Amino acid sequence: MNARTGYRGIFPILYSFFDDTGELDRDAMRRQVEGCIRGGAHGIAVMGLATEVGKLDVNERRRVIEWVGEDIAGRIPYAVTVGETSVNGQVNFLKAAKDAGADWAILQPPAVGGVPEAEMVRFLGKIADSTDLPLAIQNFPGVMANSLSNGGLKELNRQHGNVRLLKAEGPATYINQLNEDTDGAFEIFGGMGGIQLPNSLRAGCVGMIPAADLFDPQVKVYDLMCSGAPEDIAEAERLYRELLPLIVFMMSSIENFIVYGKQLLAKRLGLTNGAARQPTIRVSDFGLRIVSDWADRLGPLGEEI
């Protein structure tokens, strides 16, 4: 078995904030990083769906990873998702991420239809061979255009020893089977906004990668679950039950959590520019009332709930 990376815990994935002219907002991005560190994040991730990566041009994507690396400054681990559609694109972006201070990276299989799994393993393997960074694969069967089977992931790990982590999106039952089928070769981070946080940890996850808007109570749940004491686990379950209605609301659709999750985070950071970049769904007054109620309940980021 490959050496473990030791990366674990709650890694909030950052949103992109824009100013009144539609440009990336440097100060807001810095405040987001500081809020995550103040809120107890075990690490920070960027370039996921919450980052609105599909609405950023290549120069903006580079700017975001550089800014975030500069602001983290090695204080906590830093992970960057790499989603370019070619080998050269992923290799070059991976190099830029490393230069910006990334400690590990999450590779997304490109959304190219009809590709046999063996070719996808070969594609990802070429990228893995280009770096000494620990790598994860983001796998979301049935949702992402391309996902690997459990056997394909095991083969990728066997051939390329730095592919040691997974961002595995799915129910806890999927996580558990994945862990068994790959003989525990991977350190698995769950996704889906932490909607199955306690059971995902029981299933074998070493952590979760939720969005940044409500990660801090998930840090508490994680820490309590890891203590193993019955009273701490009971408290973790209680906190999780209180949080679950908000997670369900956010995860009702991808655009919903991008739009309202960013609004929630903006309120918790004291920012006024929480709008998603166009095109996006319309923000309703009712939705904003839900967000405001939860912002009051959760409090400013980093303060006691």
The name CATH uses for the topology is: TIM Barrel
Give the name of the CATH architecture. Answer: Alpha-Beta Barrel
* Residue fraction in strands: 5-15%
What's the overall geometry? globular
Q: pLDDT average, as an integer?
A: 95
Terminal-residue CA separation: 40 Å
Polypeptide structure, described:
With 305 residues, the chain is of the alpha/beta class. The protein has a single domain (9-227), classed as TIM Barrel, CATH 3.20.20.70. It is built from 11 helices and 8 strands. It has an 8-stranded parallel beta sheet. Helix 2 packs parallel to helix 3 (87-99) and helix 10 packs across helix 11 (285-298).
Write the layout of secondary structure elements.
Layout (H helix, E strand, L loop, with lengths): L8 E2 L15 H13 L5 E3 L11 H15 L5 E5 L4 H13 L4 E4 L9 H12 L6 E5 L10 H10 L3 E6 L3 H10 L5 E4 L6 H7 L1 E4 L6 H13 L2 H21 L3 H16 L15 H14 L7
Parallel strand pairs: 1-8, 2-3, 3-4, 4-5, 5-6, 6-7, 7-8
